[in-house]
């Protein structure tokens, strides 16, 4: 059965990094994988910059028209339809978490609804160290807005709380406490907790309730902003 992951999250949540990790892990399992960049808002971190890497991993990457061209007005490419029409094992969508980004997803509502039961996961990537997701109330409001504009129901959350290079297990712990309350209040399950392996292992060893951890995902960092990797990604 084709499996689709739609990753939604506000600016700075880390969804682009996670989308790339999801796709690479699937490809490494031998799955036919497509990765779609539907983030129409954030032009700073673009999956297009990792085009060379995705090709080496035999991942098909679909990016907005004019991405990384210096033109700020992006549009959704027709190739998005291939996610539904072609015989992929795994499809990963990286979607902006504001109305513009979510609207880009909403036009494919009928295609998503035609999928087999259990084939679709719509995941809210939450980083409580970001101002727009720092409280229970803000996260609940963001989720409601995402569902309204995308026309899709969020099936679960990912605790991806981090402070980039300054991250420690304390960030995952603090994120866990806030996201746990969001789950209790909304009924949305915590399906994944993600982070660098060294911090994830320390956090898991603390003995928190697995119900609000879900599946742990140790991630690698591919989207770091440095000029060498940026230039290499464009080759």
- CATH topology title: Rossmann fold
N- to C-terminal separation?
Answer: 34 Å
- Cα radius of gyration in angstroms: 17 Å
Give the H and E element order.
Answer: EHEHEHEHHEHEHEHEH
Structural class of the secondary elements? alpha/beta
Number of domains: 1
Which architecture per CATH?
3-Layer(aba) Sandwich
Provide mean pLDDT, rounded.
85
- CATH class categorisation: Alpha Beta
Sheet with the most strands, sense and barrel status: 8 strands, parallel
Number of strand elements: 8
Note the topology.
Elements lengths: L2 E7 L5 H14 L4 E6 L12 H6 L2 E4 L19 H4 L4 E7 L2 H8 L2 H5 L6 E7 L9 H15 L5 E4 L9 H18 L3 E6 L1 H8 L10 E4 L8 H8 L1
Parallel strand pairs: 1-4, 1-5, 2-3, 2-4, 5-6, 6-7, 7-8
Helix pairs in contact: 4-6, 6-7, 7-8
Question: What are the key terms here?
Answer:
eight-stranded parallel β-sheet; alpha/beta; 9 helices; single chain; 235 residues
Write up what this structure looks like.
The protein has a single domain, classed as Rossmann fold, CATH 3.40.50.300. Helix content is 37%, strand content 19%. The chain contains nine helices and eight strands. It has helices at 15-28, 51-56, 82-85, 99-106, 109-113, 136-150, 169-186, 197-204, 227-234; strands at 3-9, 33-38, 59-62, 90-96, 120-126, 156-159, 190-195, 215-218. α2 (51-56) links the parallel β2 (33-38) and β3. The N and C termini lie far apart (34 Å).
């Amino acid at each position: 059965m084709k499996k689709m992951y739609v990753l939604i999250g506000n600016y700075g949540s880390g969804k682009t990094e996670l989308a790339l990790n999801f796709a690479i892990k699937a490809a490494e399992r031998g799955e036919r994988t497509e990765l779609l960049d539907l983030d129409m808002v954030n032009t700073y971190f673009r999956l297009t910059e990792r085009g060379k890497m995705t090709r080496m991993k035999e991942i098909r990457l679909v990016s907005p028209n004019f991405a990384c061209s210096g033109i700020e007005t992006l549009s959704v490419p027709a190739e998005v339809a291939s996610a539904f029409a072609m015989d992929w094992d795994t499809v990963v969508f990286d979607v902006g978490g504001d109305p513009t980004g979510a609207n880009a997803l909403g036009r494919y509502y009928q295609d998503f609804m035609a999928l087999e039961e259990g084939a679709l996961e719509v995941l809210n990537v939450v980083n409580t160290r970001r101002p727009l997701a720092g409280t229970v109330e803000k996260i609940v409001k963001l989720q409601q807005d995402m569902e309204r504009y995308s026309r899709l129901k969020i099936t679960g959350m990912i605790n991806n709380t981090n402070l980039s290079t300054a991250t420690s297990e304390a960030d995952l712990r603090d994120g866990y406490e806030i996201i746990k309350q969001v789950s209790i209040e909304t009924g949305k399950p915590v399906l994944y907790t993600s982070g660098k392996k060294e911090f994830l292992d320390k956090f898991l060893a603390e003995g928190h309730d697995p119900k609000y951890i879900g599946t742990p995902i140790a991630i690698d960092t591919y989207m770091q902003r440095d000029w060498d990797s940026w230039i290499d990604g464009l080759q």
